[in-house]
Amino acid sequence: MPVTGPRVGRARERVLTVRGVGKRFGAVRALTDVDFWVNEGEVVALVGDNGAGKSTLVKLLSGVHSPDTGTIEYDGEDVEITSPADAQRLGIATVFQDLALCDNLDVVANLWLGRELVEGTRLDEVDMEQRTWSLLRELSAKISSVRIPVASLSGGQRQTVAIARSLIGDPRVVILDEPTAALGVAQTAEVLNLIERLRERGHGVVLISHNMADVMAVADRVVVLRLGRNNGVYNVAEVTSATLIAAITGATDNAVTRRAAENAKPAPPAASDALITALPGSGPRRMRDLPHDGRP
Ligand SMILES: Nc1ncnc2c1ncn2[C@@H]1O[C@H](COP(=O)(O)OP(=O)(O)OP(=O)(O)O)[C@@H](O)[C@H]1O
Ligand SMILES: [Mg+2]
């Protein structure tokens, strides 16, 4: 298993860029002209109310759906992600909310399911177990045995196993859909620590969450969707939960949304804290570039 070491001290490169994507389901416009990007070594929270389009955006990135309009760039090249296998090949791993673990199998078997290591005609159980331990150690995971069925693990540990499994194949982008939604306080802290480990390893992490405390604790940047459109991008260091909640609920519409709604010319950004006006490098939209690491 190729495991990439921490990419500390390097400029953080853009991995994934979504420009102007739209997606309809019949009469429902799930996404309209959405921009989104992920750099390596950063945690981007994707937030929004129920039905805002978060899962749809993630499904476009993980090859479940294809966009009707817009483009997706990976490493600066236009790509089409037409299947989960395409996403995997590119290096985009998604942990969906149901985790899709096999309860009756142990931790090692779950991690390597479908990608088992073999020695001749036999499974190389020793190698898989050793690699499982080294990955779990690297993630500071609190799992005492890798030879017990995952059914007997706590919710936080199961999330850990699902995340560890997503790292087999060394993806550059890891997408987590509501990883703490079903967890208590201690287990949530465990998963947030794990997300920090992912950032240290250099992965670009997309975190879908309804929990503003989690977002504020672990994200570098927050992208707000509202009614299928962008409604603000913020650096976490410069934003309050109140501002985020206002953007999520529509108490404040940002300039991007207003522009889209009015189909008008670009206007100055709204006076809200730390609003990153839009996508770097998208030409005529007069957008300000974001520092490489996504931080102020
Ligand atoms: N397969 C589908 N068929 C029809 N409509 C869909 C489909 N998937 C999503 N939608 C619609 O698209 C919109 C966006 O849904 P999406 O699931 O992306 O929202 P979300 O932000 O993930 O919401 P939640 O927080 O509830 O998970 C909703 O109006 C939803 O009903
Ligand atoms: Mg969803």
TrEMBL record:
UniProt domain ABC transporter: residue ranges: 16-252
Lineage: Bacteria, Bacillati, Actinomycetota, Actinomycetes, Micrococcales
Protein's recorded name: Monosaccharide ABC transporter ATP-binding protein, CUT2 family
Region (Disordered): 262-296
InterPro entries documented for this protein: AAA+_ATPase (IPR003593), ABC_carbohydrate_import_ATPase (IPR050107), ABC_transporter-like_ATP-bd (IPR003439), P-loop_NTPase (IPR027417)
Superkingdom of the source species: Bacteria
Signal peptide: none
Gene3D superfamilies hit by this protein: P-loop containing nucleotide triphosphate hydrolases (3.40.50.300)
Bias type Basic and acidic residues, positions: 286-296
Keyword annotations: ATP-binding, Nucleotide-binding
Any GO MF annotation of the entry: ATP hydrolysis activity
